């Protein structure tokens, strides 16, 4: 009987340890920023999303993003409507996600204020199309807040975003995506 | 026994590790209000207004044409030899409050309106099944007096239209609008006819592709209000959106590009082939 109790206690403690012993834990935010910028000779188009959900695991370096397409804000209301209705079809494909890793997590010392760099690799999913994305991210640790910044480019046609010939001159096929998020320790 | 238990512990702990590692964003979604957008491509169904308003500080410049009858045949180039037109625009004071002005060749009419969207269809945190917009128009006819020797009053030139526009976007493609409408004419030809004319508008839009829609619009005028030669207006058209512009191409039996004219002055009948081709071109400018 005693043995069983000890074993049971062991299971619970070990389980609990497994749950918490990620020394760094998880860092999160629900108010990350993503900006995209399309530059052509005719027109510059830009939009911001300030409601980006993102988290990373400080031990494994696993990194995730979840973005609601409808939350992108454009300076022109009509552009926003066309972005959702015609290009992203956000009712059918409401979310875009990124799942990847911070490849040199060990190089980022979350316990010490400073600036660190690490490559990021992972998979970006938009409109049900998944593509590999890689970039370099800069981490600025200050007072427990981890600011991460990264940019990369996407080609709309890769994600089945159809651009009619009549507006092709106004929309770049290299859209610059800038990510800027302030992570705080979650657990 | 001991071995199997040890194995079990190992299994349990690894499983916990994986479970935690699997989805970092695993938490209940915050419920938000999701508003229906683009119930119609533009703020007109065909002739009449839709519930849509232009956004704050945006000016929607509109040029509308209605040509002659298709039944005019090749001699009239199927109606293209004659045209009535309106030039005007809608301006967004706020996202929901719009004002507009226009000038039509029909009876040399100036028109103005105030339009306010007071309900927005939404799901989620706030649920609202319909979008509703109120619009009040005023028109001033500036034709020379037919009998200049009579006592003519300026007020005789005025007419008003009030509409409650109620719409629902049923699916991504299908939207339906009902428009109870009151037209008031300050002067009518005879005491036999009403100054206040009640009608009910129906608008249907079905998306064909992400950039084109099929629109149908019908105004039913309640009986015993108008002269006997008047008929109800029926219009069928397409919206084609090209990015900066919305082109509305349609067939209708009315030549009137403003409410009083197409609801209460339409005489031509579809069944007689008295159908007109027409178009609205809309271009939005930002300030």
SSE order and pairing:
The complex is a heterodimer of chains A (187) and B (287).
Chain A: H1 2-20, E1 26-39, E2 44-57, E3 62-68, H2 77-87, E4 95-102, E5 114-126, E6 129-142, E7 145-154, E8 175-185
Antiparallel strand pairs in A: 1-2, 1-8, 2-3, 3-4, 4-5, 5-6, 6-7, 7-8
Chain B: H1 2-22, E1 33-35, E2 58-69, E3 83-92, E4 97-104, E5 109-119, E6 122-124, E7 131-141, E8 158-169, E9 174-185, E10 196-207, E11 212-221, E12 233-241, E13 245-252, H2 259-264, E14 276-286
Antiparallel strand pairs in B: 1-6, 2-3, 2-14, 3-4, 4-5, 5-7, 7-8, 8-9, 9-10, 10-11, 11-12, 12-13, 13-14
* Rg of chain B computed from alpha carbons, rounded to a whole number of angstroms: 26 Å
Spatially, the strands of the biggest sheet of chain B line up as: 2-3-4-5-7-8-9-10-11-12-13-14
Rg of chain A: 20 Å
Instruction: Give the amount of beta strand of chain A, in percent.
Output: over 45%
User: What is the CATH class designation of chain B?
Assistant: Mainly Beta
Strand content of chain B: over 45%
Spatially, the strands of the biggest sheet of chain A line up as 1-2-3-4-5-6-7-8
- Whole-Å distance between the termini of chain B? 79 Å
Number of domains of chain A: 1
CATH class of chain A: Mainly Beta
Count of helical stretches of chain A: 2
What's the pLDDT, averaged over the residues of chain B?
A: 90
SSE string of chain A? HEEEHEEEEE
Structural class of chain A: alpha+beta
Q: Which regions of chain A contain 5 or more consecutive residues with pLDDT less than 50? A: 18-23
Q: Give the strand tally of chain A.
A: 8
- Helix percentage of chain A: 10-25%
């Amino acid at each position: 009987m005693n043995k069983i109790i000890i074993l049971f206690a062991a299971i619970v403690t070990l389980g609990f340890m497994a749950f918490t012993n990620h020394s760094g834990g998880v860092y999160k935010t629900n108010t990350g920023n993503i900006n995209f910028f399309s530059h052509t000779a005719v027109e510059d188009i830009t939009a911001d999303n300030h409601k980006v959900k993102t988290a990373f695991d400080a031990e494994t370096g696993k990194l995730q993003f979840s973005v609601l397409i409808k939350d992108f804000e454009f300076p022109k209301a009509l552009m926003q409507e066309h972005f959702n209705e015609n290009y992203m079809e956000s009712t059918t494909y409401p979310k875009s996600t990124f799942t990847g890793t911070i490849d040199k997590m060990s190089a980022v010392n979350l316990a010490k204020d400073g600036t660190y760099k690490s490559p990021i690799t992972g998979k970006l999913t938009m409109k049900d199309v998944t593509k590999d994305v890689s970039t370099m991210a800069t981490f600025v640790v200050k007072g427990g807040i981890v600011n991460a910044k990264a940019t990369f480019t996407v080609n709309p046609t890769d994600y089945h975003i159809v651009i009619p010939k009549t507006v092709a001159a106004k929309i770049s096929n290299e859209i610059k995506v800038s990510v800027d998020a302030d992570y705080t320790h979650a657990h | 026994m001991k071995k199997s238990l040890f194995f079990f512990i190992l299994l349990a702990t690894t499983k916990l590790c994986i479970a935690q590692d699997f989805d970092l964003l695993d938490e209940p979604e915050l419920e938000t209000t999701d508003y229906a957008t683009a119930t119609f491509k533009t703020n007109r169904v065909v002739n009449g207004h839709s519930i849509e308003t232009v956004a704050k500080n945006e000016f929607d410049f509109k040029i509308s044409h209605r040509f002659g009858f298709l039944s005019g045949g090749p001699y009239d180039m199927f109606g293209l030899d004659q045209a009535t037109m309106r030039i005007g625009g809608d301006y967004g004071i706020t996202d929901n409050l719009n004002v507009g002005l226009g000038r039509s060749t029909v009876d040399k009419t100036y028109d103005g309106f105030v339009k306010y969207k007071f309900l927005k269809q939404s799901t989620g945190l706030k649920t609202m099944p319909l979008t509703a917009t109120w619009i009040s128009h005023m028109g001033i006819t500036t034709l020379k007096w037919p009998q200049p020797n009579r006592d003519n009053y300026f007020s005789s030139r005025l007419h008003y239209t009030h509409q409650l526009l109620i719409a629902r976007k049923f699916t991504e493609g299908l939207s339906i609008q009902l428009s109870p409408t009151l037209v008031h004419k300050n002067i009518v030809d005879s005491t036999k006819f009403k100054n206040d004319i009640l009608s009910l508008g129906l608008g249907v839009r079905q998306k064909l592709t992400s950039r084109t829609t099929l629109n149908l619009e019908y105004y039913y005028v309640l009986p015993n209000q108008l002269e006997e030669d008047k008929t109800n207006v029926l219009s069928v058209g397409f919206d084609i959106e090209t990015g900066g512009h919305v082109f509305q191409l349609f067939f209708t039996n009315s030549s009137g590009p403003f409410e009083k004219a197409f609801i209460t002055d339409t005489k031509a009948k579809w069944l007689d082939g008295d159908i007109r081709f027409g178009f609205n071109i809309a271009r939005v400018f930002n300030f």
